[in-house]
Structures are given as C-alpha cells and as structure tokens.
Amino acid sequence: MKILICGVGGRMGREVAKLALDGVRDATIVAGFDVVPLDTREFPTYTEWSAVNGEIDCIIDFSHHTATEALLNFAKQNNIPAVIATTGHTEEEKSNIIEAAKQIPVFHCANMSLGIALLVELAKTAAKAFPDADIEIIEKHHNRKLDAPSGTALLLANAIKEIRKNAKFIFGRSGQAKREPQEIGIHAIRMGNIIGEHEVIVGTDTQTITLKHEAHSRALFAEGALAAADYLCGKPAGLYDMERMISED
Ligand SMILES: NC(=O)c1ccc[n+]([C@@H]2O[C@H](COP(=O)([O-])OP(=O)(O)OC[C@H]3O[C@@H](n4cnc5c(N)ncnc54)[C@H](O)[C@@H]3O)[C@@H](O)[C@H]2O)c1
C-alpha cells in the first residue's frame, strides 16, 4: 500500500512514518506533506499540493483541521482514498468531508484506537441500562493540544445521545444552575504530557460505573490509521469510521 502522510512533521505524522518504514501493513511512504518544510532521506516531502506526484493508494492525515479542504481537493482530483484522523473541524469543514465522501472513500474518525471503539459501545450499553443515570465525560490530554474538548469526548457524547435523544451537552460546568437530569457534562483537562485519557462516568443514587480508556503510546493511533488505510483501499466512495470497520471485519 503506497501512502502519503499529511502532517508528516508532527507527533502523529512521525509515528505513522515510523511504523510504515518498519513495514507495518505493508505500507510504503510515497511522500510526506507538511506546511513546514522537512528534510527526510527516506521519502520526498512537499509543502504544496500542486507539487505532489507519484502513485498514491491512500492519504493519511494527522495535521490541522484547516488542512482538510486542500487535501480533499487533491484527493478528489486524483481519486485517492483519504483517512482524516485530524480533529477539531468546524461544522463547515465537516460538511466538506461529507461532500467529498460522495466522490471518494473517506475514513473520518476522531479516535483511531480499537479500545476507544469498544469504549463507545460500552458507554452506549451503560446509557441504555441506566436511562436515568447522570453521565459525565472527563478527558485529559497534554498541554500542547489545540482543541478542547477532544474529538473523542465529542464522539462519546454523540454516541450516548443516540441512546438519549434529548441529552444536552454541558461543557466545563460552572455557575449557579443545578444539574438537569438529561445533561451530559463534558470536561477537558490539559496538563503535562498525557497522551489521551477518556472516562465515562455513569452515576445513579446507589452506584457509580466508571468506564475508562488510557492511551499509553501514540503508536496506537498510528496503527489504527494504517489499518484504516488498508481497509479503505478498494472501497467505493463513502464515509467510513472505526465502528463500521470493526463491524465489517
Ligand atoms: N484520530 C485520532 O486518533 C488522533 C490521535 C492523535 C491526534 N489526532 C489529531 O491529529 C492532529 C495532529 O496531531 P499531532 O499531535 O500530530 O499535532 P502536531 O502539532 O504535533 O502536528 C501537526 C503537523 O501538521 C502540520 N500542519 C499544520 N497545518 C498544516 C496544513 N495546513 N497542511 C499540512 N500540514 C499542516 C504541522 O506543521 C505539524 O507538523 C490533531 O488534530 C490531533 O487532535 C487524532
């Protein structure tokens, strides 16, 4: 599988490159792309989409949400599937992703880890089993993370909302108002070097259930992105995610 890594100079881009250079998923890096010029021996790196050439089977993107539009234009022009692992997209950027998926296969998921896909399922099961419980989500990340709350916290909240249709999201609660029964509180903690922790707390008057996922290494997301790229190659146009990939495997 021949890949292009967008955001190749960043923490996640470098992880994907490391795994691909080790031959994970039989991946070969055709090119890297970043706004910051990069000097790599193993593959060429571009700063302009118009300069990119070579045969590419899939693009893997861990960059910045503002990069998505140009990336998808390039992918559509060249009919290349794209794994968008970047988070923090605006509503307009999300609509662009949905539109692009009508022309090319696009994998878009706020969290590329299998463990988080499982956490999502467990959170939905808990919300179903305890319809009146209070549910709060706490996420913790390193102090360099740009978006808050994390895309994964929103992924979890939206999955719970599929079960609790009238749930209302409250971000970083403050002020005088009392908690409403159907609120889902979402709280972001930023400190040190935490790779990513997500906790879903389900509490009734008599018990509390805590579902928690901790990422120990960024390699976990890079592995997931390469698995997603492998899965996406040869698929028809459409929007794919981890839940769909796992259910089809
Ligand atoms: N889906 C997941 O599982 C998952 C996991 C980890 C990180 N992420 C997301 O991936 C993204 C990158 O994370 P990171 O920790 O590697 O960040 P980072 O800041 O270390 O790296 C981002 C890289 O993207 C480059 N970049 C910025 N704007 C660009 C543009 N317009 N075009 C091309 N390149 C551009 C930067 O120069 C940098 O090299 C973030 O949105 C983060 O939230 C997602």
Question: Would you mind describing this structure in some detail?
Answer:
By secondary structure, the chain is an alpha/beta fold. It has 2 domains: 2-112 and 218-248, 3-Layer(aba) Sandwich (Rossmann fold); 114-214, Dihydrodipicolinate Reductase, domain 2 (2-Layer Sandwich), CATH 3.30.360. Helix content is 33%, strand content 24%. It has 7 helices and 12 strands. It has helices at residues 11-21, 68-78, 91-100, 114-129, 151-163, 219-232, 242-248, and strands spanning 2-6, 28-33, 45-46, 58-61, 82-84, 105-108, 134-141, 168-171, 183-190, 197-203, 208-214, 238-240. α1 (11-21) packs across α6 (219-232), α2 packs parallel to α3 (91-100) and α4 (114-129) packs parallel to α5 (151-163). It is elongated, with a radius of gyration of 19 Å. The model has no long low-confidence stretch (mean pLDDT 95).
